Fold this sequence. Notes:
Blueprint: H1 3-9, H2 23-35, E1 45-50, H3 53-60, E2 74-81, H4 88-105, E3 109-114, H5 126-134, E4 140-149
Antiparallel strand pairs: 1-2, 2-4, 3-4
GO molecular function: oxidoreductase activity
Domain Nitroreductase: 9-60, 68-149
Organism: Absicoccus porci
Amino acid sequence: MNFEELLFQRRSIRKYTKEDMNPDTLQKILQAGLLAPSSRNKKPCQFYVIQDKDILKQLSTIKPSGTFIGDANAAIIVMADASLSDVWIEDCSIAMSYMQLMATALQVGSCWVQMRKRTNALGKDAEEVVKEIVGAPQTYRLVGILSLGLPAQILPPHTIDDVDASKIHKI
Length: 171
């Protein structure tokens, strides 16, 4: 699959099979995050890999739109040491995008679950809840969670007709 095909194939997958993911596949997805560029090459991103079903269930209760995390084969919590970079949000976002593209290339379903600036049902900051669950240092800041699993649903690829060309402004 070439890069253009990869871009069209990438879809947010929220339904996963019960089949375990190959550890080498998960490692390749993580390597994509590690290879992602960062501002001044400071590499502030930290990746917490969750495969424990109890912890996945805990993470799935933080916000209503993330309930599918509990059915994932794995999840990667993407944080950054904010003391290393003032653009940690961008760095983490690039790393998450790289991991999503690698997952697609390896035929693994993925979905980005936004956590930054979100609250749980009790009004508690989702970032603090996640950091408490994984024991992350206070200097770490959370961008999101990438759920991963073998897709139980195959969505059709996007087409060029799906894009809104009116968003392009030529000057």
